[in-house]
Amino acid sequence: MHFHLSTQNGVSVLVIEGELDALSVVELRPLISQVGEERPPKMVVDLSRLRLIDSSGVGAIVALFKVVRAYGGNLVVDGVRDQPLAILRLLHLDRVLIREVAR
Amino acid sequence: MIEFTRANGCNIIRLEVPGRIEYRDVVLRTVSSACKLMIPDSRSHASRCSEFTAHMVSAIGEAYNNIVLHGYAGREIGSVRMQIESSFDWMRITISDLGASFDPFQAPPPDLEALPESGLGVFIMRSFVDEVSYTAGPPNILTLVKRLDGDDGNGPNRVGLTEGKAS
To answer: Strands B10-18, B2-7: parallel, antiparallel or unpaired by DSSP?
Structure first.
């Protein structure tokens, strides 16, 4: 799993690539704390290059969403497809998180 | 260790790995490959193959997580054995381990409206297959069955539970 956080036109963009699972999710936890401290008002999580996610990975995305929502920010997930999309749909998170669903 | 045989019209793949999270990828790539073998004409059935594979990989991933993160936690790490049997329209995966028993039917269903950050694994596993059975060990034996035109993955499936020796 690789990720990087950047700012584009005033929006914080978090790109997560590869596999976000029980093994790799620990690498993402410090970033969740960082977002809580920096408080970007708008955030997009780009999952277009995420190949696989499990319940641990979903937990991290939800935790990030809650952190952003708690300080009044806005977070959407973009570009999700295939197995990660199936998981988000099953958990009804597509209704909460996804801006544009790949079809 | 991995072994492939064919018997009675079924492909059978057997895999044994140490019960560590680092071997998760090996397990899931084997499941994914088995799905592609089962639906060989993937060009004309790309969507069906992709969905079937996504569901099966997700279900086995959660089952494997439970074994290595909970079943073998705090005890000597043993192996995880997996057998994948498939015909043209169904797949049955049996996973056995020597860790602490974990009855998937005792896990409470998550309150999805509350946006839970944990406790989702068993729900995902049960939702994406058509049949689940579990026998407490040792060895613990979990069997998942999915049919090509089975459940659409929108909720927990029918269940069948065989109780073995309690942990």
So the answer is: antiparallel
